[in-house]
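Q: What residues go here?
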């Protein structure tokens, strides 16, 4: 068994938590909505990964790439590691785990 479903699950929870924290600290509804949507998509991807469905890596991979791009732009603008840097690192780890899963098949 690979770690891809577990990493995707963790990344999804982190996205949801980050959106909630952004809303609580800054009152950002955009953070809350985007965190919930991306987090739920990652959780759905994790569910499919645990079940062995080919949709799992596709969903998780696309969402991870989009989040890496969004948070890279945010990190370049703010120059603050949290939360952008952490989400980039988690996204890259998730992509590597998905790549490992894909190459193991």
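A:
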């Amino acid at each position: 068994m690979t770690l891809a479903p577990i990493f995707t699950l963790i990344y999804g929870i982190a996205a949801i938590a980050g959106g909630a924290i952004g809303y609580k600290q800054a009152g950002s509804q955009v953070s809350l909505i985007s965190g919930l949507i991306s987090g739920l998509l990652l959780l759905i991807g994790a569910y499919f990964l645990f079940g062995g469905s080919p949709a799992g890596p596709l969903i998780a991979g696309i969402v991870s790439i989009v989040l890496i791009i969004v948070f890279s732009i945010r990190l370049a603008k703010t120059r603050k590691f949290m939360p952008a840097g952490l989400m980039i690192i988690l996204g890259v780890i998730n992509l590597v785990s998905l790549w490992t899963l894909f190459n193991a098949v």
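A: Context that may help when evaluating the design: The helical segments are 4-26, 29-51, 55-78, 84-104. The mean pLDDT is 94.
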